[in-house]
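Purpose: get a first structural picture of the assembly so the mutagenesis plan has something to point at.
Setup: two entries, given in the order below. No constraints added.
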Amino acid sequence: MTSAEELLPATAKGRATRDRIVDAAADLMLAHGVQGATNPEIRAAAKVSGSQLSLYFPDKESLVRAVLARRGDQVIDLLHTTAHGDLDSIAALRSWAAFYTERPNSWEGGCRFGSLAGDVLKSDLNLTADVTDGFDRWHAVFESGLTTMRERGDLRADAQPATLATILLAAFQGGMLLAQAQHSIDPLATALEGAIDFVASFGPRD
Amino acid sequence: MTSAEELLPATAKGRATRDRIVDAAADLMLAHGVQGATNPEIRAAAKVSGSQLSLYFPDKESLVRAVLARRGDQVIDLLHTTAHGDLDSIAALRSWAAFYTERPNSWEGGCRFGSLAGDVLKSDLNLTADVTDGFDRWHAVFESGLTTMRERGDLRADAQPATLATILLAAFQGGMLLAQAQHSIDPLATALEGAIDFVASFGPRD
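Result (structure tokens, whole complex):
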């Protein structure tokens, strides 16, 4: 966390400008990768001047950090929206998965956060901690829901929430990459169904 | 497949030069991404001139295509090497997984093929079919082994080899991305163990 990132604009207009830059950069980075999103394109898409861009984001690192944080927030919001609350039941997990698998083009661009994360990890930007933080927040939502399920008796005592959370998150990221390669949502659907079935296999024995 | 890609050098020396270029490009692309690997860097690393580079690879697409094919071959070789043969038993799958999980730094750079694939899918290069082909070949090795297991009775009749192959491949790709983010092999180990346990759950009922 640099001090540059914490310089949030004092006025509503300033915040709106900053938001517009982050949104434009996020879209361009999703489409063309972190390195493929150039300042002139970002300025044009956000309708800001070069001096406005450098006022809020003095360097690429500060901009990518803001995009990662935005995407991380959106992913967490979407988890709860698609699951209609917490991810604390098999039905909620299936509802989350269905959001993607029932929209045949949802593979386009890949995972809003994971795709960007892969790029950042390969770049020279010093943002690994920001990527880790994003995945950790996502993992925590799964782990919290799975812990509730175990406490409630929906999962047996030998179910390990942290382990199962990693399995769900990996299935999503890997399935999304395969879906992008195949131009089909099928691999993601298969990977998520497998992971959720695995979680369900820790349900109470008959 | 362009005609350029099929122009393999006629002489052993030419083939060695071409190989050196592909290896150098593959390493640079793994470290810095497809867009981050520049021609001057590739020429320097492969110790070739600009005219040699453009003789074998007239454009970036032809070079990335060759790198994808090379990485795809290496992944298939490594599958068989690490499993000591075909991936047609739970022990063979665990042996393949152990190759990664017992080497604590094997997350560095991510999956040799998958990391490159993610980059290519985000680029303007017309190479989606090459990425699909690489994952398909990988998937086929898993599917073939799982089919043998089912025929042998190691898996029940309701086990679906194609589905389980996708689950294994997704767990590997997603686990590797999370391992890169955490600078730890643990998420990959967890994802692979979960996927292999899921496959094993289709074993004959007691």
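The mean pLDDT of chain A is 92.
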